[in-house]
Amino acid sequence: MILQLLAISAFVSLGTAQTYTSCNPTNSLKQWSLSTDFTQGSSDEWTAISGNVTYGSNGAEFTINKRYDAPTLETNFYIFFGEVEVVMRAANGTGIVSSIVMESDDLDEVDWECTGTDTTQIETNYFGKGNTTSYDRAIWETVSTPQDEFHTYKVVWTAAAITWYIDGTSVRTLEYADALDGKNYPQTPMVVKLGIWAGGDPSNGEGTIEWAGGETDYDDVPFTMYVKSVNIINYNPAASYNYTDQTGSYTSIVASNSTTGSGIHSSNSVSVSASSSSTSTSTSSISTSTSSKALIAEASTYPASVQTSSSGVVSSSSSSASSSSSTAAASSSASSSAVFTGAAVTNLPCFFFTAFFALAIALAF
């Protein structure tokens, strides 16, 4: 039984090395923006949740040196609608996948994924509430030699639409209603993850290996993905985000804003550019005393890149939507435990997912 548990554990670790959820949305980005320059070293705002990440003149280095390596960084905070911009050079290698992932505790997800042998495309994808019943959401966008050149990949995420950008050009927009009438639309607080993994590992399913470009030959290691910098804007800064029901709707998310100098109406900005814990902080004189507030900020507080729709929620200024699709492999996510620390309201969606996962493991025995 112990060996069976270890086998299941190893399988889950491989399948979830890139994306999993800790079920703890109580640490949020309390200021408008965070800029991280990885060419200057590591940042206290990011944690290596898998493997070893090193730093050099090309920024953060995510290297697979042997089988089962999947080095991954994750933010120590959540954002609730906003912008994520990453300057990345993808890794070479058959079956090797370089990933930029935004993921919530409710298993909402927004992705960029680049395979090591596709020199002309990168995949954009999304998931809502862990729904993997179909894989028709992926769209491959044109990009020139992403394994040899740095490119800027950006996501603008609002309650009305998600837009993906490559080097400043919009390549795809997903409207809220186009994601199963909003049911599959990513809309809950997310962390940002950066990492590399072997989709071509021989233990993976045939579909995953094919999607990743073929079976990985570990004799060809090392495989390295580089990230120079990450710029993050949080449209709804707060002390924490709490789920008030099981719907997974953004309208059910409540913020706690009891900190001074931060919150929905704050203009705080933090820039991180060194491996030490020191940061350069610019803080406004605005103090927020609201204890809890629904997280739809007033239009006047949003950057010029977004605009308010007639419904009062914030939407992207781009209205074009793309409807083409391609086959993609499952981006599986599993939670190992529920952590309810400091939350004013229990994270109900996360609790039920965790309970279901635990039951599935128990039935395996």
UniProtKB/TrEMBL annotation:
Subcellular location: Cell membrane; Secreted, Cell wall
Enzyme class of the recorded protein, top EC level: hydrolase
Signal peptide: 1-17
Reaction(s) the record says it catalyses: Random endo-hydrolysis of N-acetyl-beta-D-glucosaminide (1->4)-beta-linkages in chitin and chitodextrins
Membrane topology: Lipid-anchor; GPI-anchor
Keywords carried by this UniProt record: Cell membrane, Cell wall, Cell wall biogenesis/degradation, Glycoprotein, Glycosidase, Glycosyltransferase, GPI-anchor, Hydrolase, Lipoprotein, Membrane, Secreted, Signal, Transferase, Transmembrane, Transmembrane helix
Location of the active site: E109, E113
Residues annotated as transmembrane: 339-364
GO cellular component, one term: side of membrane
Domain GH16: 20-220
Keyword set includes Heme: no
Pfam families: Glyco_hydro_16 (PF00722)
EC number annotated for this UniProt entry: 3.2.-.-
Protein origin, superkingdom: Eukaryota
An example Gene Ontology molecular-function term: glycosyltransferase activity
Alphabetical list of InterPro entries matching this protein: Beta-glucanase-like (IPR000757), CHR-like (IPR017168), ConA-like_dom_sf (IPR013320), Glycosyl_Hydrlase_16 (IPR050546)
Gene Ontology process terms (BP): carbohydrate metabolic process; fungal-type cell wall organization
Similarity annotation: Belongs to the glycosyl hydrolase 16 family. CRH1 subfamily.
Function, as annotated: Dual chitinase/transglycosylase that plays a role in cell wall architecture. Chitinase and transglycosylase activities are coupled. Required for the polysaccharide cross-linking at the septa and the cell wall. More specifically, transfers chitin to 1,6-beta-glucan in the cell wall.
Official protein name in the record: Crh-like protein
Lineage: Eukaryota, Fungi, Dikarya, Ascomycota, Pezizomycotina
